[in-house]
Structure formats: structure tokens, C-alpha cells
Amino acid sequence: MRPRPKETGFSLIEVLIAMSVLAVMALSLIGVLVHGLNLLARTKQIILATQICQEQIESIRNKPFDAIANLGSTYANDKLSALLNGQGNQAIESSVGSDIRKLTVSVAWNFHGQAMRKDVVTLITRAGIDKK
Fold first, then answer.
1. Sign, Cα dihedral of 73, 77, 79, 84
2. Collapsing DSSP states into helix, strand and coil, what is residue 21?
3. Which structural domain, as residue segments, surrounds residue 17?
4. How confident is the model at residue 130 (pLDDT cuts 50, 70, 90)?
5. For residue 43, is it within any domain?
6. Residue 73: how many CB atoms within 10 A of its CB?
7. For residue 66, which of 99, 97, 95 has the smallest C-alpha distance?
8. Is residue 56 domain-resident?
9. Could you tell me the pTM of the whole model?
10. Neighbour count for residue 42 (Cβ, 10 Å)
11. Smallest Cα–Cα separation from 49: which of 116, 123, 124, 128?
């Protein structure tokens, strides 16, 4: 009779420990993935809000200087509907000088129950851009 070879393999306890370690690692990776996807969605909305603000600023810059003082406090843009409860606001300040107006354009929206806001501020002169 030959001696029986020593059986090799994993015991039940070793398999359970390995599965537990893998489960903890998988849950950690899922948490990181969910956080990354939320961050990506938030960043996309901030970029869209910035683009909406820039479009509104360019629209106002194309108006005559004296006409911008009579603008309302809100504006409409088709892209605002892509943001939850998206609202466009604008404010014109003439306290900077007689030939300079401070324009603040903002977009406000909700993201996962949190109020978000993007403001873009610029100065508009009577002479126009890059003119002294």
C-alpha cells in the first residue's frame, strides 16, 4: 500500500475569510464609484450653468450701452430646463462709474436637494471691449 498523498486545498474558514475581504473591497469600490458619478454629474451641471451665464453676458454685450440699464432681473434660456428648478438672474450696477456697468449673471438650481448657484461677473464699458 502506498501512503495517501496529503490533500491540498482551502478550508471552509479560509474561503469565508477570503470572501469577506473581497466583499469589503467591493463595497469600498462601489462607494467610490457612486461618489465619482455624483461628482461628474455635479460638474456637468456647473459647466452648463457657466455656459448659460456666458451666453447671457454675450447677449447683453451686443445691446447698446444705454439699453442695458433697463434690463429685468431675470432672463430665460432654453438650457435652464436641463437643470432642476433652473432660474436665471441678472443684476446691473451703475455705481462703478458713469461709463461702466457691473453685470452679474447667475444661474440657480437644485442638485440632490442642495441649492446650487453659479455667478459670473463682468464689467461693460460704453466704449466696448478692449477700448480705452
1. positive
2. helix
3. 12-125
4. low
5. yes
6. 9
7. 99
8. yes
9. 0.78
10. 14
11. 116
For residue 130, being part of any structural domain is answered with: no
Strands (E), the chain: 74-75, 84-97, 100-111, 114-125
Q: How many CB atoms lie within 10 A of CB 56?
A: 22
Cβ atoms within 10 Å of 120's Cβ, excluding its own: 17
pLDDT tens digits for 2-27? 777 677 777 889 999 999 999 999 99
C-alpha cell belonging to residue 34: 457612486
Alpha-carbon distance of 109 to 115, in angstroms, equals 6
- Domain of 52, CATH number, reads 3.30.1300
Specify the number of domains making up the chain.
Answer: 1
| Residue 43, C-alpha cell as written in the block | 460638474
> Nearest CA to 60 among 95, 105, 27, 20?
105
